[in-house]
Amino acid sequence: MDALDNIIARIRRGLNNGAQPAASHTGAHTTPPAPAAPGGDELRARFIAAFSAVGGKPVEAANESAAIDQLAELMRTAGVRSAAIGEGITTDSDSAAARLSHEGYNVIGVGAANASQGGFKQSLSAIDAGIVEADYAIAPTGTLVLIGQPARPRSLSLLPPVNIVLLRTGRILPDLAAVLRAAGPQTMAAHPMVMVTGPSRTADIEKRIVIGVHGPRELYVVLIAEDSPRVAVTS
Questions:
Q1: Which of 139, 135, 78, 75 is nearest to 107 (CA)?
Q2: Which candidate, 180, 197, 182, places its Cα nearest to that of 142?
């Protein structure tokens, strides 16, 4: 068993801590059947409920074209005039940027070259919104998982006051252990991972909850239903 397997095993034990099999009326010990793995529709519904509960704003789109329409609408309703968009994982970020620019928004495409330039983070902090595609999501907690890449830097989801995240519904997984398994040890060793659960909030200021101090004050997710087979995860 490698290091990643050990980590995943500990996480699974923690998630299952306290779950004891029901006592048999006959006194004989029986092993309860393993629960069925949740299906894609169930994971999507659980994610939407949990994401909404922590202050996120979910929007559903039937396909990638509809998702770009939703991006334009979200920027309009949120009063956003400028945005930086990271390179897509499964989506065409160039098409999204072109469409938003055509709608009159100032959109910057974040390629690896741009992200490496000096002063990039400072300029990004002056942008109204950061648009990025999530690598995965965790259904029970409504958590978005973003793996940093040069063309999708962590700052894209941390610095702008509004964060809009694209998410293929097939990348919604049942727990953190499944995410770690899907990402794999090489990716985890080479790239930073950010987990986002709702808009940024803190109670450091007079013990009152304040939104948007350490990160985005508004968090949207556009769930794309099309062309997204479930991620194969080995138990």
A1: 75
A2: 197
* Burial (Cβ within 10 Å: 0-12, 13-18, ≥19) of residue 205: exposed
103 domain-assigned? yes
Measured CA distances, 110 to 87, 95, 116 (Å): 6, 13, 10
Q: Is residue 15 part of a domain?
A: no
pLDDT digits (tens, 9 = 90+) for 130-171: 999 999 999 999 999 999 888 888 888 888 889 999 999 999
Q: Taking the model in full, what pTM does it have?
A: 0.76
User: How buried is 24 (Cβ within 10 angstroms: 0-12 exposed, 13-18 middle, 19+ buried)?
Assistant: exposed
Tokens of 217: 């004050």
Range of the domain at 149: 38-224
